[in-house]
Amino acid sequence: MTAPPLTPAPGGEPQGTTAVIAHPQGNTTAVVGTPPDPMQSLEPAARPVRTPRRRTVPGRIRTRAAVCLLAVAALFGGTFWAIGNVRDGLTVIGEDAGPQVVATADMYFALSDMDAQVANILLIGRETGLGDGKDKAVRRYEQRQAEVGKALLLASDLAIGDATEKRTVEALLNGFGRYQQLAERAMLLNQQAAHPAGPPPAQVVSVYRAATDLMRLDLLPKAYNLTLESGTIVRQTYETQYLAINIGRIVVGVVGLGTLVALVMIQVFLARRFRRVVNPALLVATVGVGVLTVAAVLLLGNGAEGLRKAKEEGFNSVLAMSRARAIGNTMHGDQSRYLLDPERADTYEQVYLDNSQKVLYTAGGSLDKYYVGVDKAVGQYPDSIAFLGFHGDEAKSIVNRPDEKTALVRVLKGYQRFQQSDRQMRLLVNSQKGAEAIAERMGDLSRRFQAYDNALVDLIKLHGGTFDEEIKKGDASLGGWNWLLPGVALAAALLILLGVRPRLSEYR
Length: 508
What we know:
Blueprint: E1 17-22, E2 28-33, H1 57-94, H2 97-124, H3 134-158, H4 163-193, H5 202-274, H6 280-340, H7 345-359, H8 367-380, H9 389-397, H10 402-430, H11 434-478, H12 481-505
Antiparallel strand pairs: 1-2
Helix pairs in contact: 1-5, 1-6, 1-11, 1-12, 2-3, 2-4, 2-5, 2-6, 3-4, 4-5, 5-6, 6-7, 6-9, 6-11, 6-12, 8-10, 10-11
């Protein structure tokens, strides 16, 4: 039986029809329905609302994996940059500008010793029994001459690309040629004069004055300027690289920690979502990143400390003591010039005092007061440091280094004995005992200077050993990082991909 159609509600549409469906047990059920609207079938069907890709479980996995990969890449980049700063610092200080500075400091010494040997040759005259003899002085002059030529060639090679240093080296080359001509002419005239030990003829003195003035007023200042220019490069490079290394250590530590956090978070997410406690690949990647971070931070810390020790305990002390040695050699030459040229004796004496104050400074405006000050200062060391100058700076820098302190004690004792002999020589001159003064200069005074110089060379070698050791240790510590760093970073990236791949495959 069919129910009659429903009447429309007031102001409304028909609500539907009633159909009677026979039930298997004889009952009937009335079903009320709404007739389909013919126009509705023409409208497009509504699309189902989709969840954004990144909010799905696979999307979340991919996002977290991408964050981990980016973190690993950042760790690799930061570590590579920081290690590069260590390598650059070691290269500049240990191979480029550092050796150039030492070479120019040695050139300064060789130049000053050349002039000192010329003065000795002229002072000895025709005598053969004074000191080490004229022949040895000539051989030493020729040795220093060769050393200067070699140092100038090295400085010329290292000055390529630096216009200022190149001009300085060229000026030194030209001046050095003029000096050799004057020095050799003075020695030739001296040989022809065949005078006894003491001041040579006026013509010889005149030519030598031109030579020694050229050396002291032109060549030595230029050589020192070359040392300063190279030293400035070393100092600036050290300051820049040391700061960069420490910044890099912080960057590597922070980025490494961030990478570990990202790896731990993705593992926690996967463990909660998939009920798996351990993801072996991600766990290995986490351990690898952690080891890499710790190793890199330690490497950078050791690199910064090694660079500091090479610069401050090695290079700085080598340079300062080399400078002190060169000035000491100039002082020794001034002693010969003091005897060689009586007209300029007062000038050479004042120059000697000024140079002495540079090496070891004590208060006093005359040599007599200086001698007393040296005896007092050396007698108080190492209990107190009552002096300044190159040796004073050295004493302050090696307070906690017993080997260098012991070597410095020998240097100071040698310097004290050298000054005592200088006092004896000048007393003989003031007593009108010129021959005895020359014998003192070429005998005991020369031997004491040589003992002082040898002690200074031993101290320089100690600092040079520290410098070389730190450079070698730094280079050795960087060995293997060229392949280790990219290898670990690539392995960590592959392990991250392998760790998330099985989880993503479950949604395919």
